[in-house]
Amino acid sequence: MEQKIHQGRNVKRFREMLNIKQEALAYDLGEDWNQKKISMLEQKDIIEESLLKQISAILKIPVEAFQNFDEEKAVNVIANTFGIMLALEIQIRHSTLIQLKKSKNYTKKKLLYLSAC
User: Fold this and answer.
1) 43-73 confidence digits (pLDDT tens)
2) What CA–CA distance (Å, rounded) separates 115 from 111?
């Protein structure tokens, strides 16, 4: 069965990944826009091409991403993104622990704190 592309949901996904609030997107789209209109836009299956182009320019995301990004791909991209971020965070903490141990400028309390994070 073919997945249906929901352009409004894709706008929301990318906006949230970029940590941009609905109010900020509304502001960038112009004075005719507000948070409620963005919320309604994100519920639409299909968004007019000219509006998608504006949103694309603001979020710096290709128009095609909004038009072709299906539910399954979105879940995979988000899962991979957070997986990579978590792996990097663990690697950074591990490197910090090693550096602290090598410098001998640490306390057991510091090590316990960093190990628990």
Assistant:
1) 999 999 999 999 999 998 889 888 887 766 6
2) 6
50 φ, ψ (degrees, to nearest 5): -65, -40
The pTM assigned to this predicted structure is 0.60
Helix (H, G, I), strand (E, B) or coil at 108: helix
Q: 14: exposed, middle or buried (C-beta count within 10 Å: 0-12, 13-18, 19+)?
A: buried
Instruction: Report how far residue 75's alpha carbon sits from residue 72's, in angstroms, rounded to the nearest whole number.
Output: 5
Rounded to whole angstroms, the Cα distance separating 15 from 2 reads 25
| Residue 105 Cα distances to 36, 97, 98, 113, 115, angstroms | 53, 11, 11, 15, 16
